[in-house]
Amino acid sequence: MTTRHRFKHVDTLEARLAAEAERLREEASTLPPGAARDEMLRKARQAETGSQMSEWLRSPGLQPPD
Questions:
Q1: Does a structural domain hold residue 2?
Q2: Does residue 42 fall inside a structural domain?
Q3: Distance CA 25, CA 30 (A)
């Protein structure tokens, strides 16, 4: 059986996803219009949405169902 190597993240998931979205947007801005640029922008939107959803799920106002 192999052992899993654990990695402790310094930043929160929200911060890492937001940084990834920003990096993808910057990289997409250097590309000419086309499929590759559209794909990078789509991935940036997904990362940004994931960051917002994770932040919403962690919010103190969110209550479990009864």
A1: no
A2: yes
A3: 9
CA distances from 50 to 19, 22, 31 (A): 12, 13, 24
pTM to 2 decimals? 0.75
Q: Residue for token digits 């940036």?
A: 44
pLDDT of residue 65: 62
> Which own/partner pairs from 16-23 qualify as long-range (CB within 8 Å, at least 24 positions apart)?
17/47, 17/48, 17/50, 17/51, 17/54, 18/47, 18/48, 18/51, 20/44, 20/47, 21/45, 21/47, 21/48, 21/51
Give just the sign of the alpha carbon dihedral 23, 27, 33, 39. negative
- Give tens-digit pLDDT for 8-31: 888 888 999 999 999 999 999 999
